[in-house]
C-alpha cells in the first residue's frame, strides 16, 4: 500500500472510471435484476413518511450505478486454484496474542471489528490519546472504553452503575481542565460518546457527537455521519437512520457528477480525484438494512408486504455486494493494493452475510440465503489463499474478524436449517426436522462452536483445528506444491523474512487489540451453543441439550457492565447481557426462548419455561433491545447483520 492511502478503502484513480452502462456489461453474469442492469436511471423510491428532513419523493439511483463503476477496471488474471483449509491459516497471519501491552504509555488499543462496534476512538489521534492518558480522569474513562476496567470482577471496584457515574464525572472534569485547549476540549465529547455507547446510551451518544461537531475544527464529517446513523439504528430510530444513509448517497452521487464534469473540462487522462468504494457500499448497506427493519415493522403492524420495498431492499444489498466483490478482484491485480484487497474481502464477506439475511427475511427463500452464506465462506477461504500467494500478513485483528465472520455464517446456515429464524415467542415446541437436515445443521453448528472455542481458549486465538479440520470440501488437497513454491521464494530472497521483521510495517500487525474482543466473542458463542443444544434435543439427547443451553445462557450473560437478569432491582451488574449491542441482546434472548421450548417438552418444567421467557422479555423491555425491537419480534438472524462503515477498517 502506498503512502497516503487510507487503509480499509480501495482508492480509485478517477481516470479509471467508466460510465455505468459500460461497466454493467462486466457484471451482467452476476446481476439478477434486469432493470438494474439496463436502466440508466433506475429509481429508488423513498418511504416519504420515513423522511422527516426531506420532501423529495425519490432517491437518485444513479449513485448506485456510479459507485458500481468505481473500481479498477483491469481484468484479473487466473490465480492459483488450490483451496486452503483451516490447517494452513497459521501461515497467513502473525501469531495472535491476547496480551494488551497496557504498560506502554502511547499504546492505542485497536477497537473491535464486530457488527455492533461504534469505533469513535479511531477518530482520536495518538497525540490526543497520549494527552488523555496523562490525565487521571480521562485515563480512567479510556480504561473503561478499552475494556481494561470493569472487564473482570477483580478489576472492578464497586457496582457497575457507580463506576459509570464516576466515569461521567471524570469526563466533565477532563473537559473543564482542557477548556483552554480547543482540540482536546472538543475530543472529550467523543470520549463521552464512546462511554455512552459502551453502556447502550445511544441517543445520548448522538447528542455528544453533535456537540463534538459543533466544537471541533478537525472533524471527519463523513465518518461521523456513518456513526450517527448506526447509533440511530441501534436506538430503534430507523426512520432517522434511513434519512442519514440516503443523505450520504445523495452527496456521493453529487460528488461523482462533479468529478466527471471536472474530468471533461480539464481533459485529464492521469491522476485526479479519487473515490473510495467502501463508502458507497457502506451507504447502500445502510439503506438496505434500515429499510429491512422498517419493512419488518410494517409487516408486524399491518401484516402486508410492499413488493416495491422488497425490491429496493434486495437491490441495495445486492449492488453493495457486487461492487465489493468486483473491486476486490481488480485490487488483487496490483501488489500495492493487497492490503486494500483484504479490507474489500472482509467487507464483501460481511455484505454476503447481510444479503443472505435479506433473502431469508424478505424473499422467504432459505436456499438462496444459504447459497449467499456459503459464498461468504468461499470469499474468506480465497482471502487466505491470496494472502499466502502474495506473502501478505493478515493483521491479527482482521484475522480475528475473519474467524468471527466464518462462525456467524455457519450459525446462520444452522439457524435456517433448524427453523429457529422464525418467531420463537409464539411456538410451544422446537420445530421438527428430518435426519439429513439435522445432520447438516449439526455440522454447521459444530464448526461454529469450534471456531469460538479456538478464539476463546487457544493461546494463539485460532479455531479448534481438531473440530474443524474438514472445513472445506477439498480438505484432502495436497499442499506440497505450494510448500515448494515458498521454499523457492525464500531461496531466491534469503533476507526476505529478516527484512520483514525489521521493517516499520510490522508494528501495525503487533498493535494490541482491546480485551473486549474476548468478552464479545464469549457472549456471541452462546448462539452456536444454543444451536448445538437444539441438535442434541432433536437427536433425543435432552439431558445433554439442557446442559448446553445452561452454558449458552451463562455465556450470553458474561459481558462486562451488562444487564443483570437475576434481580428485579439491579438493571446493570458487573456481568450480564450486553447493554451496548442489540446483536448480543438478540442472541441472549433467543437462547432463553430455545431453552424454554425444551422445558415445554418435559413434565413439571412449565415454571422453568416461564422464567426463561420472562428473562427474554426483560432483555426486550429493559436491555439492549428496548428501542431496537420494542414489541416487535426481530429474527435472530439480525444478530449477524453488520452496518459496516469505512471507519471500521481504519487502523
Q: Could you tell me the strand content as a percent range? A: under 5%
Point out poorly predicted stretches: 1-106, 151-158, 465-480, 499-506
| Helical percentage | 55-70%
What is the strand arrangement across the widest sheet? 1-4
**Structural Rg:** 24 Å
| H/E series | EHHEEHHHHHHHHEHHHHHHHHHHHEEHH
Spatial shape: globular
Please give the count of helices: 23
What's this model, at a glance?
This protein has 651 residues and is mainly alpha-helical. It contains 23 helices and 6 strands.
What descriptors fit this protein?
disordered N terminus, 23 helices, mainly alpha, single chain, 651 residues
Describe the structure.
- By secondary structure, this protein is mainly α.
- Helices cover 58% and strands 2% of the residues.
- The protein contains 23 helices and six strands.
- The protein has helices at 20-26, 34-38, 62-68, 126-133, 136-146, 160-177, 182-198, 202-215, 221-234, 238-266, 277-302, 307-331, 338-363, 366-390, 396-417, 435-457, 480-492, 496-502, 506-510, 516-538, 542-556, 582-600, 606-622; strands spanning 11-13, 44-45, 58-59, 274-276, 559-560, 575-576.
- A two-stranded antiparallel sheet has the order 1-4. A two-stranded antiparallel ribbon has the order 2-3.
- The two termini are 14 Å apart.
- Residues 1-106, 151-158, 465-480 and 499-506 have low confidence and may be disordered.
- Residues 456-484 are annotated as: Disordered.
- InterPro entries: TPR-like_helical_dom_sf (IPR011990).
- Residues 242-269 form a coiled coil.
- Keywords: Coiled coil.
